[in-house]
């Protein structure tokens, strides 16, 4: 006959195979869910300064400062397969030096069970808005986009972009005041 270890190994292998199949079936149950939703964004205050970048080469680069409003309801995105959402607000723009610039300005993690109704007014950015040159002053088309990653219990890690963007302009003059 078989030893106790052989029988235990067979039972454990069978159990893990069944659990893997069930996990895959559970993943398939949320594969076609549409995780997009509308988001309203607005810029309140937009200024640009020309300051030395001591982290790189000490050249003077543009540094943008802005405050923004954000309103969206993400509570319907949570189902049994969503552990958390990783939200981030990006600014996209084109300069002569770079065809596409994307800068993450703000992020937030929302766990399951937390309040997913966002209504922020006059929020400061969490990260600096550096340009690798002087491409922000007088720029006419900078687009804010809210995106999120869904962290599931099982399955893919989708990257979703919100429905709705906001475009704004930077001023044509540098500010000299403290921001």
TrEMBL record:
Protein name per Swiss-Prot or TrEMBL: Signal peptidase complex subunit 3
PANTHER family the record matches: MICROSOMAL SIGNAL PEPTIDASE 23 KD SUBUNIT SPC22/23, SIGNAL PEPTIDASE COMPLEX SUBUNIT 3
Cellular localization per UniProt: Endoplasmic reticulum membrane
Coiled-coil residue windows: none
One GO term (biological process): signal peptide processing
Keyword Transcription regulation: no
Tree of life domain: Eukaryota
UniProt keyword terms in alphabetical order: Endoplasmic reticulum, Membrane, Signal-anchor, Transmembrane, Transmembrane helix
Keyword Transmembrane helix recorded: yes
Role: Essential component of the signal peptidase complex (SPC) which catalyzes the cleavage of N-terminal signal sequences from nascent proteins as they are translocated into the lumen of the endoplasmic reticulum. Essential for the SPC catalytic activity, possibly by stabilizing and positioning the active center of the complex close to the lumenal surface.
TM spans (from-to): 12-33
Pfam families: SPC22
Assigned GO CC terms: signal peptidase complex
Membrane topology classification: Single-pass type II membrane protein
Family: Belongs to the SPCS3 family.
């Amino acid at each position: 006959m078989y030893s106790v270890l052989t029988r235990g190994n067979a039972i454990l292998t069978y159990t893990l195979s069944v659990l893997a199949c069930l996990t895959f079936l559970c993943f398939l149950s949320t594969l076609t869910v549409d995780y997009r939703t509308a988001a309203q964004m607005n810029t309140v205050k937009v200024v640009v300064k020309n300051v030395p970048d001591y982290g790189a080469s000490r050249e003077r680069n543009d540094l943008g400062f802005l405050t923004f409003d954000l309103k969206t309801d993400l509570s319907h995105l949570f189902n049994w397969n969503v552990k958390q959402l990783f939200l981030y607000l990006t600014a996209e723009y084109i300069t002569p030096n770079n065809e596409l610039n994307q800068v993450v300005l703000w992020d937030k993690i929302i766990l399951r069970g937390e309040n997913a109704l966002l209504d922020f007014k006059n929020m400061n950015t969490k990260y600096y808005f550096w340009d690798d040159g002087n491409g922000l002053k007088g720029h006419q088309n900078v687009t804010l986009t809210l995106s999120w990653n869904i962290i599931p219990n099982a399955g893919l890690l989708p990257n979703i972009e919100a429905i709705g963007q906001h475009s704004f302009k930077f001023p044509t003059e540098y500010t000299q005041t403290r921001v």
